[in-house]
Each structure stands twice: as structure tokens, then as C-alpha cells.
Amino acid sequence: TGMTEGRSIWRKIGLGIVAAAGLFIFWLYAVWPPPLWYRVNFPQETAFQTMRRYQDPVAAMGRKYSPVRLSEISPLVPRAVLVAEDHRFYEHGGADYIELRKALGYRRDSFDLMSAKDRRDFWRGIQRSDLGDVRGASTLTQQLAKNLYLSPSRNPLRKVKELVTAWRLEFWLGKDRILELYLNTAELGDEIWGVEAASRAYFNKSAARLSRVEAATLAATLPAPRSSNPRKAPGRMLWKRGWILGRM
After folding, report:
1. Can you give the pTM of this predicted structure?
2. With CB atoms counted within 10 Å of each terminal CB, which end of the chain scores lower, N or C?
């Protein structure tokens, strides 16, 4: 009958919606290796580069990657990096909504969803905001999620997965391990990965022996290490280094 056919069609539609939702959730969460793996292991490869081939300086043709523990890095380095990239790192849960709201043009720290004025100001800020400012509000955890798992694509779905992955990293790893992994996977020059390799490339010393100025110099290469590092565009890098030193 017509009623039976109608029910069958709606049943198929419902099953299709459930299947689509299941695939979407799988897409969000299907990350390998899982974040738990990184509690005790350094990455051998990431979404942006294959680290394993960089560990042999001859085969790597100058490309370098040398992971070290946080205890083997001068404490001045993470301090400088947090000043430069994520000064609220130990306060947020993977995404810094205060900095995101500011990047969207809403400058106040407080926001009440029930307030018509706050909603209106927030919407006006979004209309005036620039996409580059929003990208600049990414936390260290989001940057690590992108380095480990994701592509450099800027589509909204990739950003959603970046947020979900950042929350998972925060849940499984904790702040110090996230910071340790970030300092070892961030690109700090053309094919130079992590602070240990960068320290040896630029200053001919281990990351444990970096001075305050040298730590700020490495932090100043972010977020554009290929175009702004101690070997390239020193003017811009030196200006940012001074800014970081003034806030350390």
C-alpha cells in the first residue's frame, strides 16, 4: 500500500542519515596512531613530513629531526614559545575561546550568550574579521594536532577535525607532553624540525644550552619558519624577537 511504501522510504532515509552520521563521527575520531600512543613515543612521521628519513643527516641531505625530552631543553625555550604562540596554553582545554573571540573582532574577555548586546557585538566582529586573524588564534595543541594528523587544507571540516583532535590530545597527553611534542615537531627553518635540530643548525649547541636571546630567536621564527628565521628575513625576525624578549 501507499502507507507501507511511505514508511519504507522514511525508514531508508533514516538509515541513510544514521549511516552518514556514523561515517562523519568515524571521520572525526579515526586517528592513527591514537593520541595515547604519543604518551611514550615520539612521532616517526607526521602529516607534514616523514621524520624517519630526516634522522640520518647524510640521507636527509641537510634535513634534520632530533627529538629530545623537555628536560633536555632549556626552560627559556618553552617560555619564549608560549609568549609568541599561546600565552594561555596552561589555561585552555585545547581551544582558546577568548583569543578566538578576539580574533573574530569581539575584544572583551567576558561573553554572555543570553545577552543581546554581546551577541550583537560578536556578530559585528565576525563581519569585520579577517580569516588570517582567526588562523592566528590557533593554540599550540591545535598546531600539534595539525602537525601530527592533518593536512594544511583550510576548509571548515578540517578545522572541525583539528578541534576534535586537539581535545583528544589534551585528554590523553596532558600539557607538558603536548608542549614537549610541539617543541620537537614544529618546523623552525627550511627542513629543520624541532628545537634540538634548530639549536644545532643555528647556534651549534644543544637546546639545553640556549640563552634567553637564542630561545627568543627560535620562537621568533614561528609561524613562518621558511621565510623568517635567523638565515632569512632577519629584520622581521629580529623585531619579533625583541617583542618576545619584552614579554618574557
Report:
1. 0.78
2. N
